[in-house]
């Protein structure tokens, strides 16, 4: 329009006064510049955002229940002196693995040998008296029948014989006691396990009771793994089981694996062996115990570990990668791709983590497609360039843990428990 106007007035420029012609020319130039400023450049079209997507599917997914646990000896005994005397020598190395029946301490046996000898002498004396009493009784009986002796003489002979028998029994008991006390001077381990530090040194005078504690021995194969279940966790599991969102194995036959502090896995597996009936008043939890073999000596009593219970299943569970879930101001959400290929924000309810994936309890329908990689760059209505991602599979995100090395090379044989040892465990 400015150009047409300029063409119309151009032929009359020569007939106008000079100042008026100059003003008209400047005005026309300004209008041309103003018109040029009003014309904005067209922005280039935004390229599609490249993302990966997956199709929502339901599947029965095995899950692992994880707890912080502490190990405990399956059988721990205190080694104490049972007689008073002097400690001659310690016959084991502190902290080493000891076998059942292995001698740990030797007390001075000489006073007990003397006591045994004295008791044996008393027994021999009483046995001699018994023989004399029996001989007297044999002589008195016929004389009483012939009337040569009174009936009282027979009663006295019978009483003496019986007193001699009782004295022999008492002397035999004293000999047995002296033999037992002599045997107590040799102190052996009642089980196979790890020995503790010696509480008494060679030459010490020890007595029975609290002052007679010498050391302790802890059986570590098998070993207990204790952990606690809170009331909230128990109620949560009950509600999920009632809603068929979680299934435990029959008879709660979980397989238990133990993970050490460095993330390595103990190769031996165990089973649940005990669950306390009542809650602890101090902690509001109840104790659960697992028992597993410890053939390589990797676990020691009092060690903090993580217990993984395997065998539970979440039926028809929806599992999505964690990177597909974003955190909004009030809730979690994912980007759902509609039929036109456009992203739509969808609020979802999240459950537990499963490795690198996440259980979704509400918000998604089977067969829908969601954005996985690149979700942070997505905005409503932005075109997408979709590359299908592999759907989450059973055990997705489960990382392989390194297997823990043997604690002490060559200790398997030393830790091996005999059938009698296993039978004596509680």
How would you characterize this protein structure?
One of its GO terms (molecular function) is transmembrane transporter activity. Its main location: membrane. This protein has a six-stranded antiparallel β-barrel with strand order 2-9-12-11-10-13. A hairpin with a 4-residue loop joins strand 14 and strand 15. It has seven helices and 19 strands. The chain is 29% helix and 33% strand. With 426 residues, the protein is α+β, with helices and mostly antiparallel strands.
Write out key terms for the chains shown.
Elongation Factor Tu (Ef-tu), domain 3; 7 helices; OB fold (Dihydrolipoamide Acetyltransferase, E2P); 426 residues; six-stranded antiparallel beta barrel; alpha+beta; 3 domains
Quick structural overview:
By secondary structure, the chain is of the alpha+beta class.
> Number of DSSP strands?
19
Helices and strands, in order, run as: HHEEEEEHHEEEEHEEEEEEEEEEHH
Oligomer kind: single chain
Helix content: 25-40%
Spatial shape: elongated
CATH architecture of the largest domain: Beta Barrel
β-strand amount: 25-35%
Pfam family, one: RND-MFP_C
Membrane topology: Lipid-anchor
GO molecular function: transmembrane transporter activity
Organism: Azotobacter chroococcum NCIMB 8003
């Amino acid at each position: 329009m400015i150009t047409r106007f300029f063409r119309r007035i151009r032929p009359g420029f020569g007939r106008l006064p000079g100042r008026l012609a100059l003003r008209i020319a400047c005005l026309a130039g300004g209008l041309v510049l103003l018109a040029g400023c009003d014309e904005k450049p067209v922005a280039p079209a935004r390229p599609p955002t490249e993302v990966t997507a997956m199709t929502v599917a339901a599947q029965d997914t095995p899950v692992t229940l994880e707890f912080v646990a502490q190990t405990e000896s399956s059988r721990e005994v205190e080694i104490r002196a049972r007689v008073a005397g002097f400690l001659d020598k310690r016959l084991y190395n502190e902290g080493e693995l000891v076998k059942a029946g292995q001698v740990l301490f030797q007390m001075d046996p000489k006073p007990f040998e003397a006591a045994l000898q004295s008791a044996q002498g008393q027994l021999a004396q009483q046995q001699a008296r018994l023989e004399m009493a029996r001989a007297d009784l044999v002589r008195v009986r016929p004389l009483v029948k012939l009337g040569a002796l009174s009936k009282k003489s027979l009663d006295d002979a019978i009483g003496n014989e019986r007193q001699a028998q009782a004295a022999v029994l008492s002397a035999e008991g004293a000999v047995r006691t002296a033999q037992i006390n002599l045997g107590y001077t040799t102190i052996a381990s009642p089980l196979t396990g790890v020995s503790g530090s010696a509480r008494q040194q060679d030459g010490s005078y020890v007595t029975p009771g609290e002052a007679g504690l010498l050391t302790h021995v802890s059986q570590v194969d098998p070993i207990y793994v204790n952990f606690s279940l809170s009331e909230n966790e128990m109620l949560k599991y009950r509600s999920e089981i009632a809603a068929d969102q979680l299934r435990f194995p029959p008879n709660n036959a979980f397989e238990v694996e133990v993970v050490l502090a460095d993330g390595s896995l103990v190769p031996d597996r165990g089973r649940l062996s005990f669950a306390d009936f009542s809650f602890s008043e101090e902690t509001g939890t109840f104790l659960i115990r697992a028992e597993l073999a410890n053939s390589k000596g990797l676990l020691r009593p009092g060690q903090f570990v993580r217990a993984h219970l395997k065998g539970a299943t979440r039926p028809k569970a929806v599992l999505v990668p964690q990177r597909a879930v974003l955190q909004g101001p009030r809730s979690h959400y994912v980007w759902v791709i509609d039929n036109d290929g456009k992203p739509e924000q969808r609020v979802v309810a999240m459950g537990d983590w499963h490795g690198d994936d996440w259980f979704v309890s509400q918000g998604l329908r089977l067969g829908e497609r969601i954005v996985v990689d690149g979700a942070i760059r997505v905005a409503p209505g932005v075109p997408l360039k979709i590359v299908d991602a592999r759907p989450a599979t059973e055990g997705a995100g489960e990382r392989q843990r390194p297997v823990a090395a043997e604690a002490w090379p060559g200790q398997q044989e030393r830790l091996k428990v005999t059938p009698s040892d296993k039978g004596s465990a509680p």
